[in-house]
Design goal:
This protein has about 280 residues and is of the alpha/beta class. It has eleven helices and ten strands. InterPro entries: ThiF/MoeB/HesA, ThiF_NAD_FAD-bd, Ubiquitin-activating_enz.
């Protein structure tokens, strides 16, 4: 790919590499937009779409994100926003897992839903959206339900796993699969004006603590519903956690739970070592 590298350098403007040049390079050298993006980043050139990341995320960090693989379990209220933000952030490979299709009641809050996508598989809509907003990112759609029996295979190779589920039972199973894989899991849950986020690292039992009093059912979401703004906020916090984990920066919500109350604008970080039962129990 020496010719590709030389071409990329010749088309750079300072340390920026613009989208039209990226598209031209892929066509000229018969390769993918992903390969061109990685080649530019490897030379210390920043694809111009990421220039507003520059003060927070270095070019080397952007390359790390592009070479990363993140799995998102659930492509609904939380998952749609998570996928959108991961793609715009520049995470190179996203595994999207969901067996469902869009229904009319999804339209109030699920970013990937529209009247035109009703009846369409959520993972198909996710793939189409990512192809539209950042074609250099690869989204791998998995139109099937996560279960303990298939979890190891579905999630293999992921460096971080994002919980965007609405089932506590499935979430607890996912936490165990993440532990077995030795991979961090970013947990998010929503209900009405409220939400919570926590990050479980291998060897922790954070999610089990959060739901230690759960007996059955899906949790408070079924009682409180979900307006449009709650999943958007909680998903954004989840993506920030993913970014910190992949780049090894900042302080993740390790052994902590962030509780969000948007009705009264109260954010509380709770030490999970001595955590009282969660509102989601």
């Amino acid at each position: 790919m020496d010719d590709l590298d030389a071409y990329i350098r010749s088309r750079a403007e300072g340390d920026l590499f613009h989208w039209d040049s990226q598209v031209d390079a892929a066509e000229r050298f018969g390769t993918t937009l992903a390969r061109v993006e990685e080649a530019a980043l490897a030379q210390g050139l920043l694809p111009a779409r990421y220039q507003r990341n520059r003060q927070a995320i270095s070019v080397n960090d952007q390359l790390t994100l592009f070479r990363s693989r993140v799995a998102v379990i659930g492509c609904g209220g939380l998952g749609g926003y998570v996928i959108e933000e991961l793609a715009r952030l520049g995470v190179g490979t996203i595994i999207a897992i969901d067996p469902d299709v869009f229904e009319e009641h999804n339209l109030n809050r699920q970013l990937l839903s529209s009247p035109g996508t009703l009846g369409r598989a959520k993972v198909e809509a996710a793939a189409a959206r990512v192809a539209e907003i950042n074609p250099a990112v690869t989204l791998l759609p998995r139109e099937e339900a996560y279960a303990p029996e298939n979890g190891m295979e579905l999630l293999r190779g992921a460096q971080v796993i994002v919980d965007a589920l609405d089932s506590i039972q499935t979430r607890l199973a996912l936490a165990k699969t993440c532990t077995d894989l030795g991979v961090p899991m970013v947990h998010g849950a929503i209900g009405g004006w409220y939400g919570q986020v926590a990050t479980q690292f291998p060897g922790d039992d954070t999610v089990q603590k959060l739901y230690r009093r759960w007996v059955e059912g899906k949790g408070v979401e079924q009682k409180l519903g979900n307006p449009s703004f709650t999943p958007a906020l909680v998903a954004s916090i989840e993506v920030a956690e993913v970014c910190k984990i992949l780049l090894g920066v900042g302080e993740p919500l390790h052994n902590r739970k962030l509780s969000v109350n948007l009705l009264e604008i109260i954010f509380v970080s709770v030490d999970m070592i001595n955590d009282p039962p969660s509102a989601a129990d």
